[in-house]
Backbone:
């Protein structure tokens, strides 16, 4: 299969796999790692439009980006068209490629303040927000949706059509309701219906746990792009393995334990570069837990990492793990110390 290109407004996305925006998870280091493994589009996640307008330093710090991660979008949330418009005007001066409006987040501090998934219940306001954003920028404006507020009010296919008319350049759909949260099963048939209802790209999301899931979603629903979320936590190979399957019809092997730990150290190094040693050490606690999941002595390693106060201590734990495996594996096992790995 040839690598398909999708155009969102004037932005070209050169592969069908993208990294989902996940608050507190897809920081700049995570995005750069995902990009290096084949994610064609990444997002700065869940920025408050109101906080941008108020000039919140903490919020502006979240907008840090690097040319290597482009194309990159910024996902914003809010429930007031004028605030959204002002936030978009602020974002016009930042080196980003598109603006995504979150209309799917079920978390109370977002959905409880007229933003996120609450907009699923107010289609007219949702369209006014998109129109306000589109009128304030030359960048493409996209929207992330859920299926509906609850089982009795599923409206994503119809709302997507309305949002396209309001100026949206693409729709991302996680076909669970707000009431479901992350429970139950994502109803991919709603992605199919949404794709049939609009003439703009549709990004499918939900229950993509493996390369085979990604391929199945593309084939079953006809969506243009697949958004990988939790399956990419500590596992950027989700992107490269999916692309290998799509392009060569081959399922690449899972990464070795050595590869996983080497990438984890690279992730750690990027965090230090962009966010400083202290923040890096704190953030790597959760990332490390994902990288070592399922490995031998993973629980012991997580415990040591959670007690680590510096990046150096975290790297020491990883090197010790590789050393232990090197001693226990066969002579052709292929374990390499980080000091000798590119």
Residues:
């Amino acid at each position: 299969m040839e690598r398909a290109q999708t155009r969102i407004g004037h932005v070209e996305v050169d592969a069908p796999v993208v990294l989902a925006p996940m608050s507190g998870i897809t920081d700049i280091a995570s995005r750069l790692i995902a990009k290096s493994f084949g994610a064609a589009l990444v997002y700065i996640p869940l920025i408050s439009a109101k906080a941008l307008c108020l000039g919140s330093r903490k919020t502006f710090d979240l907008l840090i980006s690097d040319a290597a991660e482009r194309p990159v979008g910024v996902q914003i949330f809010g429930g007031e068209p004028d605030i959204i418009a002002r936030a978009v005007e602020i974002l016009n001066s930042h080196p980003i490629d598109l603006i995504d409006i979150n209309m799917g987040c079920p978390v109370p501090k977002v959905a409880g303040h007229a933003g996120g998934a609450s907009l699923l219940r107010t289609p007219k306001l949702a369209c006014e927000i998109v129109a306000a954003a589109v009128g304030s920028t030359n960048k493409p404006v996209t929207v992330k949706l859920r299926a509906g507020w609850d089982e009795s009010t599923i409206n994503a296919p119809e709302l997507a059509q309305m949002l396209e008319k309001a100026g949206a350049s693409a729709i991302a759909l996680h076909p669970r309701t707000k009431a479901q949260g992350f429970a139950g099963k994502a109803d991919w048939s709603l992605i199919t219906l949404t794709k049939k209802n609009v003439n703009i790209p549709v990004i499918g999301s939900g229950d993509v746990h493996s390369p085979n899931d990604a391929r199945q979603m593309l084939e079953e629903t006809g969506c243009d792009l697949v958004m990988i979320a939790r399956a990419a936590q500590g596992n950027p190979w989700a992107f490269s393995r999916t692309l290998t399957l799509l392009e060569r019809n081959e399922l690449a092997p899972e990464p070795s334990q050595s590869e996983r730990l080497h990438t984890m150290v690279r992730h750690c190094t990027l965090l230090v570069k962009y966010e400083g040693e202290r923040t890096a050490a704190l953030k790597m606690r959760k990332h490390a837990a994902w990288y070592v999941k399922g490995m031998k002595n993973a629980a012991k390693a997580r415990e040591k990492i959670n007690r680590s106060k510096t990046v150096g201590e975290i790297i020491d734990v990883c090197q010790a793990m590789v050393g232990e495996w090197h001693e226990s594996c066969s002579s052709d096992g292929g374990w390499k110390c980080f000091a000798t790995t590119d």
The domain at 6-248 is CATH 3.20.20.70 (TIM Barrel). The longest strand covers residues 42-48. The chain has two domains: 6-248, 257-340. Residues 325-342 have pLDDT under 50 and may be disordered.
